[in-house]
Structures are given as structure tokens and as C-alpha cells.
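Internal ticket #5521
Category: modeling
Description: The requester needs a full-assembly model to guide mutagenesis choices. All entity lines are attached below as received. Residue total reported by intake: 496.
Assigned to: D.W.
Attached entities:
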Amino acid sequence: MDRGMIAFWYDLPDSGRDEYLSWLHEVHLPEVLAGREDLLWAAHFRNEGGGERFHEVVKDMMRSGKGEVEGGHDFLLLIGAKSPHSFFNPNFPQLKERQSGETKEMVGLREGLNLCVFSEEARVDGPDAALRPAGTAPGNYIQMGNFNVAKPDDDHVLGGWYAQVRLPFMEKMPGCIGARKLTAAAGWGKHSILYEFASSRARDDHFIAHEEEGFDENSWTARVHEFVIHAPCSPFVGPRLWPPVENKGS
Amino acid sequence: MPIDRGIWATWYDLPGDGRKDFLSWLHEVHLPEAVQRPGYLWAAHFEIPESASRMNLVKKKLTYTDTVDIGGGTQFLILRGAASPNVFCDPNPAQLAERQSAEVHEMLSRRIGVRSCIFAEEGRVDGPEVRSRAPGLAPGPAIQMGSFVANSLEAEFDLGAWYAQYRLPSMGRMPGCVGARKLVSVAGWAKHSILYEFTSLDAREENFQKHEELSIDEKEWSGRVIRYLTHAPGSPSVGQRIWPKA
């Protein structure tokens, strides 16, 4: 249903941040969705970092080279559509040309903007999938990775790991709403993974230990950790700011 | 809604010796067995002859990768289709290779310059001749398949717009066109691919070739696009389906 997605990672200056967030949530995103039938949902997230245990897992992973990709990572705006081609007709540069003065000014506050258009490669629903009705905004709390691999053959190892290890785990994990493996139709990071959780607590209680399997150097997870090269925004871990979260999660 | 959103493509060459034996085995034994694997919907084998002179004029304008370790095969192309690209990740090609019998291993080892990609479908259009391919069945009798990378983020947005706003709508109206699928790579070089399907090579030549020739003019949108792309060896592959028989 929502196989296309555009992602904007960015930072905001302290000055003007509150005004920007009010405008984005109360004016811009409702207008964007009202104006285009092919856009199914939008969601805005704030990065909380993922916590100390998680930091230990990811701290030694490879990172993109300096200047290769913009460094924004505090906020993430996702928009979903039936097809990634919704984001190419018009495409982002064409949309920018059509922006009003106000939109230009507010969007101009974004710093370090990194964006990708994704096509969905695969998805699984978790036990809490009912918290996110089909075709609506991603769950209350997310983790999203964006990365490349060191060489083309690593893609096949990565694909095997997602299909045989990670996605089947997410399908059964308590507190998991779902997971989507994405492939970039445009953008620096060819691969992306979006995990949706019922809450931060659910992620802490059930997901971090699975990430920590990467400490076992004989594990498939460790092999994957050795060849992934992350964008500055990756992994992004945080709550949904808009649409506001209803407290139904576990 | 398309049911075959995953494609596994393998380009390769064959030595002159033993070619006939290999093709008989592939068509009569290996591919019929492969499509029995869980999740596989179809398989198809294409022979890619040397480019015709008109297409060579276009190819001379293209940039080709100098990456040496991706496999340079250009003569044949095997395509397999599945509902999801994940079907080709479980088992993945390396795991399949580990499980091969000695006979399969020996036959597949005859291939030279093997290059393999698993693709997810990004978008598709049906052409006027789509009824000649029932949903879920192998691509049309003649194809053109390109695989390439774009050299910047700006180029990727322009490429996406070119397909969404110009090329795919044109294919939807083109006589002799069965359909076109824009693909993105889940695994392998390159990141982007386009698969055009035609009722015949003649239909392609008559209706599509002139579109390709627009790219020779750098003032055309198509001309701008080809100048920021880097292609895989031999790309685009233009060929005829040799199994299942066209």
C-alpha cells in the first residue's frame, strides 16, 4: 500500500526551532497531505540517540567520509506514498521552485539536510501491528538506519541476514509494530531499515539484546556490522512528534 | 498490483565450446528446476547479440564503469521473478551455490564474467501489448535492460523525474511495448535498472529506437540523463527470449 517513502534528516538552530515545529505540524504537513491524494501519510520524529547500550553496539561501525553526505540527524521527516514515483513527479528540486515565500523561509531553517527516496523491498508486521493501521504513519517510536556496504558482494550477505535473521526476529518481537527494509531510488545510502515499536520501553526491553548479538564475532550480525557504512543520521532512534502519539503502547 | 516485484538478474558469457550442451541443460533441466524453488514465479533466458549499428551510435555516448571485480559478461541474461526480492535472499545466491550438486556446479562454472543483481521494483507501466504477457509470467519476447549508477544526488532526482514524468508514460503508449519496469538494486552493482519489454526486436527497432536516439542530442532531457550515468558492462542489453521459447 505505502511502498514509497521520502526521508529528510536535518538539524534545526535553537533560534526559531519552536516556531518551525509549530508551522511544520500545524500548517505545512496538514497542507501537504491535503493537497496530494497520492501522499498517504507524514510523520515527524526527534532523535534521542538510542541509549548507552545501543551506543556500545554501533560506536565502532564505519561512517561515511567527510563531506560525502550532509550531517543532519536531530529530526527525521517521513512521507509515505503508494509509489516512490510520487516523489519524482514532481521531484524535490521542482517542488522547491514552487514553494511560497513562507515555506521557503521555514524550510530554509533546516541545516545539514540529507534526503532519500525509498522503494520498499520487504516488510514484516510485528505482534503489535494493530497499533498502526495499514497505510498510516509509522509507529510511536522508531529506529531507522541508512547505510551502504563496503563492496557489491556484501549486499547479498546483508540481504540474507535481513531475510533469514533480522526480519523473522522482528515478526515475533514483543512490542514490535513492524519493520520495513527499504532500497534507495535516490540518495546516498542505498539501504535503509525502518523498525517501528510500540514504545521506547519495548525497544529497550526486547530489541537491544538482539542488536548486541553483534558482539559475538562468530555471529552473522557481527559480519554485517563489519561491512556497513552508516550516514551521519544513522541509526536514528526516537519518538514520533507528529502526528501526536496516543498512549496505547505497551 | 504487480505480483512479481522482485527480480534476480544474471549476466554472463559462454565459451564457444560446449555452448549447445550448456543451453540444452539450462533450458531442459536447470531453469525448469529453479522455478520450482519456493517463491519463484518465473524464469527467462535471453540471448544478447552484438548491438545493431543504430544502437551502437547511442552506446558510444555512454560511460561504462571501470570497476573490475563486478563481472563483465554481456552475451546472456537470466531473469527470475518473485513476489518479493527477499525470496532471492532466502537462500541467497551464495547459499544456493553451497548446495549445488556436482553436475550443477560443473555446468554453471562454464559461465564467464558472471554479474548478478537482485532488484526491487520501484515503478512500472503496462504498454499497449500487456495482454500478451499474463500477470506473473516471464517478461516479453524481446527486452532491453539497462543497469547503471547516477553520479550525484541531483542526478538521481533528475533521473527519477525523467522516468516518472517522461520515459515511463511514453512506454505506456508505445506500439509494440508490453511494459516497462524501473528497478532498484537490493544487491549487486549497479543501483538502478530499467527493463523494457517488447513483442519483438522488430517492434523495438521500429518504435523505441528513435526515443533512444534522442539521447545523442545533449539538449534533450534524455541527452542530459545519459551524460550523468555510468553503465555496467554491455548495458543496455538488447535481446530475445530463448527460454521459454518466444
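Resolution: model delivered.
Comment from assignee: Chain B touches chain A through 40 residues (CB under 8 Å).
Ticket closed.
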